[in-house]
From TrEMBL:
Domain YbaK/aminoacyl-tRNA synthetase-associated intervals: 63-170
Origin organism lineage: Bacteria, Bacillati, Actinomycetota, Actinomycetes, Kitasatosporales
Native species: Streptomyces fuscichromogenes
Gene Ontology molecular-function annotations: aminoacyl-tRNA deacylase activity
CDD domains assigned to the protein according to its UniProt record, in alphabetical order: PA2301
Name used for this protein in its record: YbaK/aminoacyl-tRNA synthetase-associated domain-containing protein
């Protein structure tokens, strides 16, 4: 199979390579529902040595820069209560944590979650966190620009490998809220 974007040596429909995915991501693919069929989620093998964005696009294709999204874990606090959430924005933007995220979570303060909290709560590797397979009770804030893309490159839950997913599929993930201006 050829990947819909980028220049990858290995591209496989995610349902056909569940053993290559970490447990939360494999479980999400296995139980996939929605308008986009699970076999439209493509797993591509990547080398973690080329994880830096500039080197990554140089190696796998310049077209990926505008078609990549980052998934980050944030913590919103109000009093003693902390709410963990994930945010998905284009790689060319940054998450508006102190504006859009704080307001959406109803928090007094919002910040990026510490690495050990993000990895412990998701079961994913830092630098590979993906919106596919997140805890079902988490809010997933998705920038509308991500949903508008025909195909988006995101993490696979680990540093080796990525997922290629039609943008509209992110709006159907558990807890998803599509927002304008999440990425600035």
């Amino acid at each position: 199979m050829r990947a819909p974007i980028g220049d990858f040596d290995t591209a496989v429909p995610a349902p056909d390579c569940l053993d290559d995915l970490i447990a939360p991501v494999a479980d999400a693919v296995r139980g996939w529902t929605g308008a986009v069929p699970a076999d439209r989620i493509v797993y591509v093998e990547t080398d973690p040595r080329w994880a830096d964005t500039a080197v990554f696009v140089e190696h796998y294709g310049q077209d990926l820069l505008e078609r990549s999204a980052n998934c980050v874990v944030v913590a919103g606090r109000r009093g003693a209560e902390t709410t963990l959430a994930a945010c998905l924005v284009l790689s060319t933007t940054k998450v508006d944590v102190n504006g859009v995220v704080r307001r959406q979570l109803g928090a007094r303060k919002a910040s990026f979650a510490a690495m050990d909290i993000a990895t412990g709560a998701t079961g994913m590797e830092y630098g590979g966190i993906t919106p596919v397979g997140l805890p079902r009770d988490w809010p997933l804030l998705v920038d509308s620009a991500v949903v508008d893309l025909p195909c988006v490159l995101v993490g696979s839950g680990r540093r080796r490998g990525k997922l290629l997913i039609p943008g509209k599929a992110f709006a159907e993930l558990p807890g998803a809220v599509v927002l304008d201006g999440l990425g600035v």
